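Lab manual, section 2.4: Encoding a predicted structure.

Procedure: take the sequence of the chain (145 residues), apply the prediction step described in section 2.3, and record the output as structure tokens. A sample record is shown.
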Amino acid sequence: MRDNPQQLHKQKVIAEVEQRSLTSVMNNTKWNSLTEAIYCELAFAPAFQSKYILEAEPYPLEFEQDVFYLGDWESLSTAWYNVEWVRVKPRLLEHTGKYTPPNTLTIEAEWVNLLQRLRIPYVKKEQDYWIYGYATATEYEQLEY
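Recorded output:
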């Protein structure tokens, strides 16, 4: 009997996690609880940058500035086992007109409350929040709940 492609992919992820000595931080239950709470409780789904275990680069590659788009958290739900980390911006730029600068909408307080209530481990770096699916020993030590 042959393994299905998803099972082979999971085996590659597990091998890479072991080879890099990463620690599992999140599980499907926590990821699913987070996604549900984002859509049910927050004013908007915050944008994120994601890095997968088997990918060399995160997506989107550039994610330094605040953005005008929402995060598609549902797109991650089929591959939680493969998420190394997500970098979240709990802010959204809102167009105000052709010649005026955008407004910045923020849900930072609600975001932190949600993370703490759900006991989602995170690290705040500058203005962004990092949620690790897998972490190095150093990253693991920095996690807040």
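Check your result against the sample. The chain is about 30% helix and 25% strand.
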